[in-house]
From TrEMBL:
InterPro entries: Epimerase_deHydtase, NAD(P)-bd_dom_sf, NAD(P)-dependent_oxidoreduct. This is NAD-dependent dehydratase. Coiled coil: none annotated. Gene3D superfamilies: NAD(P)-binding Rossmann-like Domain. Transmembrane segments: none annotated. It comes from the Bacteria. Residues 9-215 form the NAD-dependent epimerase/dehydratase domain. It holds the Pfam family Epimerase. It comes from Ornatilinea apprima. GO terms for molecular function: aldehyde dehydrogenase (NAD+) activity. The lineage of its organism: Bacteria, Bacillati, Chloroflexota, Anaerolineae, Anaerolineales. CDD domains: SDR_a3. One of its GO terms (cellular component) is cytoplasm.
């Protein structure tokens, strides 16, 4: 039986889910506020404009859908004010349509784990504003699942990189200068391990979780290539680019200065703890259940640089 898949959002995670679904021959519909189709979204994908904060709109968009992927989010500096209402609207749509709801999250809800490996069994112990919002939204999702209102799966990825990823610690502020032979801008400690998620693996994980009923009602960490220090990982980018590694390190003081003028930089300050101690994500639960889908760093980096090169000219 043919299945219909709806993706809320059109950013890098949404596009990765789209690619994983198209690879499987699925019918895909995407929604964002503007209705502007990103260059990487092919014409075969139905693209809708609409306000996902409006439950009436999300319910209409979700009619006849089998699986819904929640990849949308407000501007980074508007999370506390706007994110719960956005996700509530999408949750209501999934409940009304009886579709599975597959939600992409980050790791903010765990709070400061003092360098210990981050696994799904850790409590929500966020001490930051955005982490507390993430924790509250996750708990709301799981409560709705337990109450039988909607079938939910949560997939959590670390800081990510890859095609179409711009606003990330390993996004355009690191990669664009690198390709121009300039120092790559890196946030926090260069020589501490930090797990990064390849965006295509994140999208693939969401689709796998949407296919498997045994995943329902649970939290799953996305598999990642082996954790490296930021120096080691970014040096692999320079190696692929055929350039010697050069770094420009952004510490908390420089981030504070940037925060005077840039709301996103100001909001990033409370998350600096992730970059000043070891940050290692354990995805063994997913790997045991569904296999290790992580793309090797070298392949992921090549695909990332190819995408950036095409858009630098």
């Amino acid at each position: 039986m043919s299945q219909n898949h709806l993706i809320f959002g059109a950013g890098p995670l949404a596009q990765s889910v789209m690619r994983a679904l198209l690879k499987r021959g699925k019918t895909v519909k995407m929604v964002n506020r503007s209705g502007k189709r990103p260059a990487d979204v092919p014409a075969q994908v139905e693209f809708l404009a609409g306000d996902a904060y409006n439950p009436e709109f999300t319910r209409q968009a979700a009619q006849g859908m089998n699986v819904i992927y929640q990849c949308a989010q407000p501007a980074y500096h508007r999370w506390v004010q706007d994110f719960p209402a956005l996700q509530s609207s999408i949750l209501q749509a999934a409940a009304a349509s009886k579709a599975k709801l597959i939600v992409g999250e980050n790791l903010y809800m765990y709070g400061d784990t003092k360098g210990q490996p981050i696994h799904e069994g850790l409590p929500n112990a966020a001490h930051t504003r955005k982490g507390k919002v993430r924790a509250q939204m996750s708990e709301t999702l799981l409560e709705a699942h337990r109450a039988g209102k909607v079938r939910v799966v949560i997939a959590r990825g670390s800081d990510f990189y890859g095609p179409a990823v711009l606003s990330s610690t390993l996004g355009e502020r690191a990669i664009k200068p690198l390709l121009l032979g300039k120092p790559a801008e890196v946030v926090g400690a260069l020589d501490l391990p930090h797990t990064y998620t390849y965006i295509s693996d994140f999208g693939e994980a969401l689709v796998i979780l949407g296919e498997r009923d045994e995943a329902l009602g649970q939290i799953w960490h996305v598999p990642n290539a082996p954790t490296l220090t930021q120096r080691e990982l970014v040096s692999l980018f320079f190696k692929e680019a055929g350039l010697p590694p050069r770094f420009s390190v952004m510490g908390k003081f420089m981030m504070s200065l940037g925060g005077l003028f840039i709301p996103e930089a100001r909001e990033s300050l409370e998350m600096m703890y992730q970059f000043t101690q070891p940050f290692h994500v354990d995805a063994s639960k997913f790997i045991r259940a569904f296999g290790d889908i992580a793309t090797p760093h070298e392949q992921a980096i090549k695909e990332t640089l190819d995408w950036y090169r095409q858009r630098l000219h």
